[in-house]
Every structure is written in C-alpha cells, then in structure tokens.
Amino acid sequence: MKTAAITAVGHYAPDKVVPNSTYTAYLQTTDEWIVSRTGIRERRFLEEGGTSDLAVGAARRALAMRGIGAEEVELIIVATVTPDMFFPSTAALVQHKLGAKNAWGFDLSGACSGFLYALATGVQFIQSGTYKKVLIIGADKMTSIVDFEDRNTAILFGDGGAAVLLEPSEEEGYGIIDWVNYLDGSGEEALHMKAGGSRNPATHETVDKRWHYIHQDGKAVFKVAVVGMADVSEEIMKRNNLTGADVAWLVPHQANMRIIRATADRMGVDMSKVMINIDRYGNTTAATIPSCLAEYYADGRLKRGDNVVLAAFGAGYTWGATYIKWSI
Length: 328
Ligand code: UT7
What we know:
Blueprint: E1 4-12, E2 16-19, H1 21-24, H2 31-38, E3 42-45, H3 51-66, E4 75-79, H4 90-98, E5 104-108, H5 114-127, E6 134-141, H6 151-154, E7 159-168, E8 175-183, E9 191-192, H7 204-208, E10 215-216, H8 218-239, E11 249-252, H9 257-267, H10 278-281, H11 288-298, E12 307-314, E13 318-325
Parallel strand pairs: 4-5, 4-6, 11-12
Antiparallel strand pairs: 1-7, 2-3, 6-7, 8-13, 9-10, 12-13
The structure holds oxa(dethia)-CoA.
Oxa(dethia)-CoA (UT7) binds next to helix 2, helix 6 and helix 8.
C-alpha cells in the first residue's frame, strides 16, 4: 500500500527575539541556569495576533515551496493547545485566511505530541485514497498561557508555527513508513492549565489564582519524558529493524536538551545526527518538530533517502514516534 509523503515544509517564527537575559533579573534566574538546565538561549514572541497567524505564515511557506494554490488543499489539521479561541476552530480561521476554500479541517489537542498525532491522522486520509493534499500544521502561541511570574515555566516556552504538506508517496518505501502514539491521562496532575475550560470557566477567582496559565511540575514531567521518549524511539527502531547507524536524523520534541541527549543516547544516535533548534526558539509545543524539519531541509542537511525518526512527549501525557523515509 502506498503511504503518504511530506512534499513541502514551512516554518514561521515571529520577528521578536527574546534572549534569556530579558527575564533573568525579574525572575531571579540566570542565563547560565537556563542554558545548562534546558539548552535555551533565546525565544520568539508573537506581539500581535494569535496562533492562526503563526499557522498561516507557516502554511503559506509550505504551499509556496510546493508551488500550489491554497484552493488545492483538501484538509487542514491544526495541532495546538493555544487556539485563537474555543470556536471557531483555528483550522477554520486558517482556512479562511489562506483562502483554502475547498478544504475542511479541525483542531487537534495533543500538546507537545500534537504534530505527531496530526501527522498520523493525516496519513489515514491519504492512505485510504480519500485525499491527495492534506496540510498538517503545528502552531502554538505559548506566551498567551505562560505565567511570567513563574520562573519554573516562564523561561521555557516560545511562539512558533510550522506546516507540512502530505501527498500520496510517489515511490514505494518512501514517505511516512510507521508511527506509534500513546496517551496516558494520569499525567493531568503534573502538566495542565486549570481554568478556561468547562470544569473551571473564567471567573475573577480563576484569574486571581493564576489558573489560566500553564502549571508544570517540571521534575515529575522530566522523569517520565526521559523514559517515554527513549522507549518509544527504541520501539519504532526495533519495529523497523533500524540501528542507530541507520538513522540519518533524530527529530526530538524540543523541551529540554537533557531529555534530547538521553533519547539520542538510548537510540545509539550520535548528537551530530540530532536536529536541534531549542537554543533559538525554546519550547514551541506543537511546532518544534516540523520547525526542525523545515530548517534542516531548507539548508540542505535533510536529504532525500534519509531515515528520519520523529519523537515527542508532552502534556496528557501524550507521546509517540514516527519513522519517515524522507522523499524530497
Ligand atoms: O514540553 C512538554 C513537556 N515538558 C517537559 O518535557 C519539561 C520537563 N522538565 C524540564 O525540562 C525541567 O524539569 C525544568 C527545565 C523545567 C527544570 O529543571 P530541573 O533540573 O528539573 O529543575 P528543578 O525543577 O528540579 O529545580 C531545581 C532548582 C529548584 O531549586 P531548589 O528547590 O533545588 O532550591 C528550583 O526552585 O532550580 C530552581 N529553579 C530555578 N532556578 C533558577 C527552577 N526554575 C529556575 C529558574 N532559574 N528559572
């Protein structure tokens, strides 16, 4: 059976660059602490607009790369935890702004694994023969839910969007070969945003209690993320008879350099074969993996025929890995 292949990639990073030093005095932290504990040096903040603007910026670049108009897109899936609003969906806003008038679409909430969840979903529509052009977008305006008085989280997140176009693979053995995704809802306690949803709608009290911001027990998440991302990466390699030497690129979710190193270690993949942009963007949630793909493809490091393993871990808990034989 022919699978789906990524035929175009686009990344949109907002212009405003925010180095660690911006918040070090205010949050009683240091650049040295942030760099050594996370690998982050600077991030990008979107000053005006919402997640749909990040998504549209990325989608336009992907469509331009493929040289097609937005009206050719049949389905738009937006992975995000920071939709512009509850409804309409961010996918609807993106469809309208892009002028993708022949597409339907929806949002998908998979946190840091959102792009992998969306990719696996999009693949189904291609494999079934239903569609030939599916836009998968990972975009998050994380600064809209970051508590800038909480140094545990304020130094971690940034805003960004990235998109890929999925089409039927032209050649057997190329494209998205395999994927595995997991969900464990017991992770709620360690990583969540308490209010704004139906359980705790917005009130003066929820605002006073700072419940409209990310709450993360960093240490708890760190422990499960290290194991989860390494386990799932190992699993996808075993299932596809891949050794560390066969892997051209590991593309890990960019939450913490120490988690990234631990995953590469377990896979037996040298750090020179690990895509990294956390130093320049921080954690952009659903956008980290496709933004790496876009950057490494644009500068020629990611090449046709490369065995690429994507791996993510995030809120839920959600986690997963995808194996791609890169085809462009
Ligand atoms: O993307 C979604 C999934 N999320 C993740 O994968 C994130 C996983 N977690 C992490 O990346 C790390 O746990 C963090 C980067 C969030 C924190 O690093 P850590 O090494 O786990 O630090 P910690 O939370 O254990 O804190 C160590 C110390 C604490 O002080 P005490 O209690 O040892 O005195 C914190 O209060 O560092 C302190 N601390 C800070 N100090 C300076 C916490 N944040 C800061 C800060 N600057 N920004």
